[in-house]
Design goal:
The chain contains seven helices and five strands. The chain has about 160 residues and is of the alpha/beta class. Strand 1 and strand 2 form a beta hairpin.
Length: about 160
Amino acid sequence: MWATLDFEASGLSEQSYPIEVGYSLPDGSGHSLLINPLTASDVWQYWDEYAEQEIHQISRQTLLQDGQQVVEVCQHLNAVLGQYEQVFCDSQWDLFWLGRLYRAAHMRPSFMLTEVGLWLLQENGIERAHFQQTLANLGPSKHRAEWDAKQIRQAISQLMD
């Protein structure tokens, strides 16, 4: 039993932080949560205008209005994902943003997040490039966390069949 997780972020830099997290569960259901950066214990100020306009299209104002508190997001993820043996992501960046999210909440995840390319190679002998090609064959990423988590799940499922 495994789940997938994906983040959208304020940009791609060491100063970036998670703005949306989404997951996909074995039954095909999924969920996403916007994250209010003002609720982080450390200062989350970095904002990449290009990322907003050309990638995820989530405005900082939307996060401030509709985003959940960092602690609530971590509690939700722990409650839902803590019951799975494996939780996979498709990028080292997701590991970075998971760490940043939980540090800001002064919490620890109740699940282990694993980058799928490494796992596929170690456990199944499947190269990361093969996973990336399978993912690309599913169509372009929408750069929305739940949608992307579902695509990651679909790509893994295709490789494991």
